[in-house]
Automatic annotation (TrEMBL):
It comes from Carassius auratus (Goldfish). One of its GO terms (cellular component) is endoplasmic reticulum membrane. Component of the serine palmitoyltransferase (SPT) complex, which is composed of SPTLC1, SPTLC2 or SPTLC3 and SPTSSA or SPTSSB. The heterodimer consisting of SPTLC1 and SPTLC2/SPTLC3 forms the catalytic core of the enzyme, while SPTSSA or SPTSSB subunits determine substrate specificity. SPT also interacts with ORMDL proteins, especially ORMDL3, which negatively regulate SPT activity in the presence of ceramides. This is Serine palmitoyltransferase small subunit B. It is found in: Endoplasmic reticulum membrane. The gene is LOC113115447. Keywords: Endoplasmic reticulum, Lipid metabolism, Membrane, Sphingolipid metabolism, Transmembrane, Transmembrane helix. Pathway: Sphingolipid metabolism; Lipid metabolism; sphingolipid metabolism. It comes from the Eukaryota. It is a multi-pass membrane protein. Signal peptide: none annotated. The chain crosses the membrane at residues 9-26, 32-53.
Length: 82
């Protein structure tokens, strides 16, 4: 794919973005504010996913591994059997 067709494709994607979101009816300064807010929200979602999803996955794996292995005996039962 040459650079001209790549540039045309990117311009076409941007035009589709403007049409789908309805931003094309806004003034340029309103478009920039909308795009800034949208990019900020996407960045926060990506950062939050990067930070918190691994923790939740680890906790879920620990929880389900406990269920699969079964519950250990209580410590009271272990102490009374001696």
């Amino acid at each position: 794919m040459d650079m001209k067709s790549m540039r045309e494709y990117v311009c076409w994607l941007y035009y589709q973005y403007l049409l789908i979101t309805g931003i094309y009816v806004l003034e340029p300064w309103e478009q920039s504010i909308f795009n800034t807010v949208l990019c900020t929200m996407v960045a926060m979602v990506i950062y939050t996913s990067y930070v918190f999803v691994p923790i939740h996955v680890r906790l879920a794996l620990e929880f389900f591994s406990e269920l699969v292995r079964g519950q250990p005996e209580s410590t009271v039962a272990l102490m009374n059997s001696r």
